[in-house]
Amino acid sequence: MAVSPTVLTISRAAQIQAERAAAGNARVWRRISPQSGRALEILGHAIDYLTDEYIHRGGQFRAGDPELEATQLLKRANRAVYFACPVVPTFGERCLRFLGIGRR
User: Fold this and answer.
1) Helix-strand-coil percent breakdown of the chain, rounded to 5?
2) Non-local CB neighbours of 14 within 8 Å, separated by 6+ positions
3) Is residue 47 within 8 Å of 78, Cβ to Cβ?
4) Do residues 85 and 33 make contact, with C-beta atoms less than 8 angstroms apart?
5) In whole angstroms, what is the distance from residue 35 CA to residue 38 CA?
6) Distance CA 38, CA 99 (A)
7) Neighbour count for residue 7 (Cβ, 10 Å)
8) How far apart, in whole angstroms, are the C-alpha atoms of residue 70 and residue 92?
9) Distance between CA 61 and CA 51 in Å, rounded?
10) How big is the chain by its Cα radius of gyration, in Å?
11) What is the mean pLDDT of the chain?
């Protein structure tokens, strides 16, 4: 799958999530604002709708299909909104930061 040059670069929050996943702590909580939550809801519905319609019509998964590209575009937007939400530090990270031991 080709990567579009319009895809956002990996943010610090995504890097933290990757570090946690590598350490075995894959659960990451994010603080999602009402605006971001609504955007994620709308994008999710649009992705579901396009996918359901495509399957219902009997679409074949072919490279370069504009309907599949539209779905992938919506998925990229969904990930961009989600990863733009700040990561909530774990209790341990907050304690370490309070004590001045943790990363800043």
Assistant:
1) 60, 0, 40
2) 83
3) yes
4) yes
5) 5
6) 36
7) 10
8) 41
9) 11
10) 18
11) 80
Dihedral sign of CA atoms 95, 24, 1, 72 in order: negative
- The residues with which 30 forms a beta bridge, in sequence order, are 87
103 Ramachandran zone, left/alpha/beta (phi>0; psi -120 to 50): beta
> Which residues make Cβ contacts (< 8 Å) with residue 102, sequence separation at least 6?
93, 95, 96
Distances in Å between the Cα of 57 and the Cα atoms of 38, 49, 72, 76 are: 29, 12, 18, 24
Q: What tens digit of pLDDT does each residue of 25-45 get?
A: 667 889 999 999 999 999 999
Quickly tell me which residue has 């890097």 as its tokens: 15
- 17 touches 87 (CB < 8 A): yes
Over the range 50-66, which residues count as b (16 or more CB within 10 Å of their CB) and which as e? ebeebeeeeeeeeeeee
Please name the amino acid found at residue 33: S
Say whether pTM exceeds 0.85: no
